[in-house]
Design a protein that fits this description.
By secondary structure, the protein is of the alpha/beta class. It is 23% helix and 30% strand. It folds into three domains: 2-88, Elongation Factor Tu (Ef-tu), domain 3 (Beta Barrel); 97-217, Rossmann fold; 240-321, Ubiquitin-like (UB roll). The protein has helices spanning 71-79, 97-100, 114-127, 148-157, 168-171, 176-182, 197-209, 256-262, 298-303, and strands at residues 2-10, 15-22, 33-40, 43-50, 60-65, 85-88, 105-110, 133-139, 161-167, 190-194, 215-217, 239-243, 246-250, 280-282, 288-290, 305-307, 311-313, 317-318, 320-321. The longest helix is centred in the middle third of the chain and has 14 residues, at 114-127. One of its GO terms (molecular function) is oxidoreductase activity.
């Protein structure tokens, strides 16, 4: 589908929201992401960004953070303007409102991880004004708080919404002790967390230690979901893939395609069996092994091209997605 930018709203020094109209009806569950296919210089790159709008809004809204060295995020924040159109894939993602269910919520977010939680919060309050929701959002500095104004308005309008901001430069990061103080009834709540991987890991561990059983974290850059298919291997990834300035963990015997997709990077992959050649990527020779090179020319193989679905990393390496 094609989406057209209608407005640009600078949120912080590094985060901007873009509003869009689409050429077709877009159905999504609050918390899901939209994948943009963005032409940058001589090729197209696909990236997934969380929706900060809700289904009843007149337009779609994506809130995007500038990533140091990020090919796509920097291009969008520097160049995308009202009137520009982009190709987008259908909304997707398992981290959303329905996973949290109808029990009281605890939303834990840090940095741009606030985005999908903000969508979920607005949606639920629009349907259930008296919903019991505790929100604990973290930012490094006060001026980096996302949606601070609209969130404050929601808290004033809905007495059952308890909103807490933690500014790490002033009061430190969210600890188990602070979490117990802000959400003493956490065991009775569905916990949804999104943010940097270390933040989510700590939040999930603390929530479960305190008795929470319905706990979900955004999986853009998580590795836990892949562990069940890699039994006997190390529980954390010591290797990583560097893609356009983004570091993604990769487990031994986990395919490059699996790592890229779990990191939210869209890769064209039709057969997923090392046959069609559509998931061709470029890496560093000697740092990966492949079970198939079908569809690649001898010249491409010599240059370091490989099939993401049929290749695993033997050490950390840089990867260029050929999309």
């Amino acid at each position: 589908m094609q989406i057209t930018c209608t407005a640009v709203q600078v949120e912080t020094d590094t985060v901007t929201s873009f509003r869009f109209t689409a050429d077709q009806t877009v159905d999504f569950i609050p918390g899901q992401f939209l994948t943009l296919v963005v032409p940058v210089e001589d090729r197209k790159s696909a990236r997934a960004y969380s929706l900060s709008s809700i289904p009843t809004d007149n337009e779609l809204q994506l809130t995007i953070k500038r990533v140091d060295g990020g090919r796509v995020s920097n291009h969008l924040l520097d160049n995308l303007k009202a009137g520009d159109s982009l190709e987008a894939l259908a909304p997707a993602g398992e981290f959303h409102r329905d996973a949290a269910g109808g029990q009281p919520w605890l939303l834990l977010g840090a940095g741009c991880g606030v985005t999908p939680l903000y969508s979920m919060l607005r949606d639920r309050l629009s349907k259930q004004a008296n919903a019991d929701i505790t929100v604990v959002f973290s930012a490094r500095y006060d001026n980096e708080r996302l949606f601070a104004g609209p969130l404050a308005e929601l808290a004033l309008k809905h007495p059952n919404l308890k909103l807490h901001w933690l500014i790490s430069s002033e009061s430190g990061r969210l600890t188990a002790e602070r979490l117990a103080e802000l959400a003493p009834d956490i065991a009775d709540r569905a916990v949804m967390t999104c943010g940097p991987q270390a933040y989510m890991d700590a939040a999930v561990a603390n929530a479960k230690t305190m008795g929470a059983t319905n706990v979900h974290s955004e999986a853009f850059m998580a590795v836990n979901a892949s562990l069940s298919s890699h039994e006997g291997e190390m529980a954390t990834a010591e290797m990583s893939l560097s893609v356009d300035g983004i570091e993604l963990p990769i487990l031994p015997n986990q395919t490059v395609l699996e790592s890229l997709e779990k990191g939210g990077i869209q890769v064209m992959a039709a057969c997923r069996a090392g046959v069609c050649g559509t998931c061709k990527c470029k890496g560093e020779k000697g740092k990966f092994k492949s079970t198939s090179t079908m569809g690649l020319t001898p010249e491409e193989i010599e240059q370091g091209y490989f099939l993401a679905c049929a290749s695993t990393a033997t050490t950390s390496m840089e990867v260029e997605v050929d999309d």
